Amino acid sequence: MTILSEELRKAMRNWATGIAIVTVEHEGVQHGMTVSSFTSISMEPALVSISLYKTSRTHELLSTAGQFGVTILAESQEEISNRFAGRIADTENRFENLETETLLSNAPFISGGISFFDCRVTQSISLGTNTLFIAEVQDARSLDGKNPLLYFDQKYHSLG
Fold it and tell me: Which CATH architecture best describes the domain 18-149?
C-alpha cells in the first residue's frame, strides 16, 4: 500500500524546520528557492544535502552549474522566504532590491541571513519527483546574535 501524497504532506506539517534559501549562479543567471530539505551529512569531510523538485528552475541551473549556496534565514526574513517560495514567479528576478554577497563561488547569499554555505555538488541521486544533491561545503560563515526563521504547520515561528 502506498500513502497518498496529501496524507504525507499533512503528516510532514508536524516537522518543524528552519528556512533556507538555495541559490545558484550560472552564466550570469541567478536564481533561488526556499527549501526546508537542507541537512548536514558529515563533518569530515564537510558534506550537506538538499532535495530539489526536478522541474524547478533552480534544479535546472544547479544541475548545470555544479555548485550552489545556502543561506539560513533570520527570523526577520519572512518576506524573503515567501519571495523565494514562489510568491514571485520562477521567471522573475527574485533577487531584485535584495543585498547579496558571495564567498568562494558566484552563488549569491542573502545578506542578513544567519549562516552561509558555499557548496560544490559531489553526487546527485534521482529519487521520485526530486533529486537529492550531496555537496561538499567549500566555505561557511555564520553570524551570532540572531535567531532563525522557523516553519511549522504551514506558519512561520520564532524561538522567542
Answer: Roll (2.30)
